[in-house]
Design goal:
Length: about 120
C-alpha cells in the first residue's frame, strides 16, 4: 500500500445497496471507485481524455464493511509514450476508533486519447 496519504482522490461511504450476500461491499463497487480515481489522476497528467486499458494487478486485502469511510489514493507509478500506470490504494476509516484499514490495491493502465479516440503521446514531463 502507498505511503502517500496526501494524494487522496476520492472519499466515499458505501450505501446499503452496495452490500453483497456476505454482508460486505461488492468488489465491483470498489473497482468502479478505483477506476474513477485512477481516471481523474490519468486525465490530469495526460491533460485530456484517457481510457482504462488494463488492470495489471488487483489484490483484495480485507472486506469493505457498511459504515466504512472509503478513501481512494492514486499516483503515477510509471509512464510510457501514450500510457500511464496508476497505483491505486483503498483504505477504510472504520468504527468509533477511526481505525485505518488497508482494503485493496491495484495497478491500472490508462492510455491518452486524441479527438478520434486513438492513442496519442503524453505531454512532456
Amino acid at each position: 500500500m502507498t505511503d502517500k496519504r496526501d494524494d487522496v482522490v476520492l472519499r466515499v461511504m458505501p450505501r446499503i445497496a452496495d452490500i453483497n450476500a456476505n454482508g460486505h461491499i461488492f468488489g465491483g463497487w470498489v473497482l468502479s471507485q478505483m477506476d474513477i480515481a485512477g481516471g481523474i489522476v490519468a486525465h490530469r497528467i495526460a491533460q485530456g481524455a484517457v481510457a482504462t486499458v488494463a488492470i495489471e494487478s488487483m489484490k483484495f486485502i480485507t472486506p469493505i464493511l457498511l459504515g466504512d469511510v472509503v478513501s481512494v489514493y492514486a499516483h503515477e507509478e510509471r509512464r510510457g509514450r501514450t500510457s500511464l500506470a496508476i497505483r491505486i490504494d483503498v483504505v477504510a476509516t472504520r468504527g468509533a476508533e477511526q481505525e485505518q484499514v488497508d482494503l485493496t490495491s491495484g495497478l491500472f493502465t490508462f492510455v491518452a486519447l486524441d479527438e478520434n479516440h486513438r492513442p496519442r503521446p503524453l505531454p512532456a514531463i
